[in-house]
Amino acid sequence: MRLISFVFLLLISFFSIAAYGLNSPNELLPNAQQEKRAEQIGAQLRCLVCQNESIEDSNAELAKDLRKVVRQHIQAGESDKQIIQWMVDRYGNFIRLSPPFNFTTALLWLMPFLAFIIGCLSAFTTFRKMQKEPLPLNENEKKRLEKLMKES
Amino acid sequence: MISNFLSPELGHFTLALACCLAGAQFILPLLGNQKNDFHLMNLAAPLAWGHFFSLMIAFVCLIIAALNDDFSVQNILQNSATDKPLLYKITGIWGNHEGSILLWSFILSFFGILFSSFSHRLSFSLRTKIIAILGGCATGFEIFCLITSNPFLRIWPAPMEGQGMNPLLQDPGLAFHPPILYTGYVGFSVPFAFAVAGLMEKNIDSAWGCWLRPWVILAWIFLTAGITIGSWWSYYVLGWGGYWFWDPVENAALIPWLTGTALLHSTLIVEKREALKTWTVFLSIITFSLALCGTFLVRSGILNSVHAFASDPTRGIFILVLLIIICGGALVLFAWQAPLLPFTALFAPFSREGSIILNNILFCSLATIIFVGTLYPSVLQMINGQTISVGKPFFDKTFVPPALITIFFMAFAPWLAFKKTSLKKLIQPLSFMGIITLVIIIISFIYLHRFLPALATGLAFWVIMGALTDFSSKLSLFKTSFKNNFHRMKNLSLSFYATYIAHIGVAVILLGIIGMAYSQQKIVEVPIGTTLHLAGYEWTLEAVQNHKGPNYLATEAILKINYHHKTICWMFPARHFFPRQQQVITNVAIHTNLIADLYAVLGDSKNINDTSPTYILKLHYNPLAPWIWIGGFIMILGGFLTLIDLYNHKIIKQNSKQNMEQPL
Amino acid sequence: MNSLTRRRLLWGLPLGITVLAGGGFAKMLSSLRKGKFDPHKIDLPNLNKTIPNFTLEAVSSPYKNFNSSILKQQTKPVLINFFASWCLPCISEMPILKQLASQLSIWGIAYKDKINMIDLFLKHHGNPYQFLGQDNQGNIGIDWGISGIPENFLIIPGGIIRWHYAKPLDYTAISSLLSLVR
User: Fold this and answer.
1) Domain boundaries, chain C
2) For A65, which of C45, C138, C148 is closest by C-beta distance?
3) So what CATH class is C57-181?
4) Contact C25 B320 (CB under 8 A)
5) Chains with 3 or more CB pairs closer than 8 angstroms to A?
6) Looking at the complex, does the CB of residue C35 fall below 8 Å from at least one CB of chain B?
7) Who has the most CB within 10 Å: B440, B450, C30, C150?
8) Each residue of C141-177: pLDDT tens digit?
9) Domains of chain A
10) Which among C46, C48, C25 has a CA at the least distance from the CA of C37?
11) What is the pLDDT of residue B116?
């Protein structure tokens, strides 16, 4: 289990490209490591007034405020989890660009496995069938067979 | 004079005429087929030409209305203005909903004539049916265009000035992006028509697969190009250096691309081995349906998207009905007829056929992940009112691992022989490649400090090595004389190269994505004359100038870039203010040496009236960034080579047939 | 059932899924048109919960300031209206608010605004507010979970958020609001 969560953490850190919605150096935290953390948290949070951008990517006023809040909380020494929970307490799961795993989102999260398994299973059963029984002849083939039999 | 003749009314009329002709193109040949009336069936191609020409006139009429700044046409009024540059007056035609539907229909009619010109050697009844089905799809779209999104509607009184076009769309990259992307979407209508016609004929054989393949490849090339250009556009226009956002509009293009790629591979098996026929038919139907579904979702307002068209539920209902008729009708036929298609070829699981089945499973799973992810929030809200979001972090987590697995298999799947492959032969080269890959992973881990990028780097080289290994074994490199090697190389088919070129394209994209994950950036507020250091480069803000563009005011910074005290280039990031829309667009400056991009954005300025104004600059160093798009075009090159190969083969076949038929 | 029929049913599965999806989309579209379904909607977790604690900055003398403890002590329902002088939809909402003020006490929170601008705005468009405070930094707005201006919250005695509307008020919203008050 720890290995799985480790792999997941790596995945999260991989494609998160740093912030670009920021439009002033005053917004940045002086501590580079804290700033990086803020950007990673911000990339997980949805800009509420925009359509599909994270607060880090958005130029909207509210996104800017939320960025500021995230940075304040980081400086106050809160953990990533606490900060995201703080946001969820106010805006619900809508603000998380990656929804939590629970009963209603289980299908969503399990889809990669499900799709692959269903694909493999159906391929496997078709393959088995194909090897075992040649299909019964259809009408045309029956007629052709009869014709051939008669001819012979 | 001509422009007076080509009025919006003529355009409106020819659009209606095209709709009637498309209807005839759909009904008459099928009726002829029913009644065995050759005259009716022969009408298919001329009707397709008529349909194409009348739509072309309609299209030209709309362009002329735009060029003449005819603001009595509602569509032009809403999307154009007199001071808009000429290029955007033309390309602005398809930058809005109405025009884009007209373009869509136009491309569909173009595919009708393209198919009818290149299919003379296909069986007559299959050919006419395919043309008819293309006509049927076009009819639906043209009725849609006429009823709910007519670009020729007039308004009275006509205003003196138009409302202008979204400045974000006034960009050369985006000007040609929609036609290419739509060609990709619409191109899949031909495979769709092949599938439906094949089902009607109850006959799907290797000839069917052989004739289908070039069309799938053609559509795939355009869709790939469309996605690549779209991603490049968002990289350099949106000004925050991202290139893929998992936005619903992007997903709508990626889903048919994924199933289309699966189709691309499975048609090979139909052609060579007559296996996977039912599945290929199904994929052809589904790919086109998904392309339509994407259009529907984007324009209906159901999804949250950055690039929202003016969404309208009425239009949504219309496209939905159209979608259900086209896609549902094809699936009814599929359910009824497909079980009658016989299994033919047998093969072992470890074979080229088996590898392509795995490819199809993986690609369809990837498509499913995106499809479900894109729709899940809306469906969940509909069912129990819960509001959630599914965005980039989710897709990064769920899409990337299966995509990497797919890339893993991509390296050696083409080695496998048809029917049956002995595993023993694979073990030696694979283990050799595996060891090198492991070494690469370890070395890159030392440099990159993160596990997944290192793994991905290894995978990219794994794919490239897979191609080289097969190449050298085909050449018997180091086993025979050099001359013999060369002789063998000349005899290799073009499609052999094409396959690996396309696969290497994927590896190049992967490397580009890894490089982008290591981009460095700096956001600063500085006065003129400051020198900044980023990634070993010295960026000096030399001056800031103001000038006037055709419909905007520009503020342009002049940046001098030094590397080891030698000036390598000048960059001009700018901000364009469009007074009509009261909107500021940042114009990113990019300098590339094909290994890395220097990327500069000019932000706000402060104390502008002061003696020492300061400017906000965002500087990025994006290593390997251009490879993402170069890789895309390498894939497209692979597609083109396959097309050329298929074309040559057909000519050779034709010639040999003629030779055989000639009396000696 | 012979094997052909069975196979046809099996191959009909995609058709079934498509029809189902089509029906779902049709339902979505129709409720989108009726306004029941909105992809931009955010359901707030603080609905039916106690209001967050806050203190507002005062606007100026004629307007009475308030804070969370005053709001919690109320014995009658209160409509909290987030507004700003720079927001155009707020102007369109004003006539409705003024009508509503006779039936329900309305308290205003000026979101990221300036005192003199608020004053001008209320002098020009009328003042429906019994109490008025301002949220200069927008932090209180975030605590309440607002995502745009204007937004309205109905607070029932005890300081519980009973109702939330994230768009400018209209008459349908008012009727559902008043049914809750009564």
Assistant:
1) 3-34, 57-181
2) C138
3) alpha beta
4) yes
5) B, C
6) no
7) C150
8) 999 988 888 899 999 988 899 999 888 888 888 888 8
9) 2-95 (1.10.8.640), 106-151 (no CATH)
10) C25
11) 93
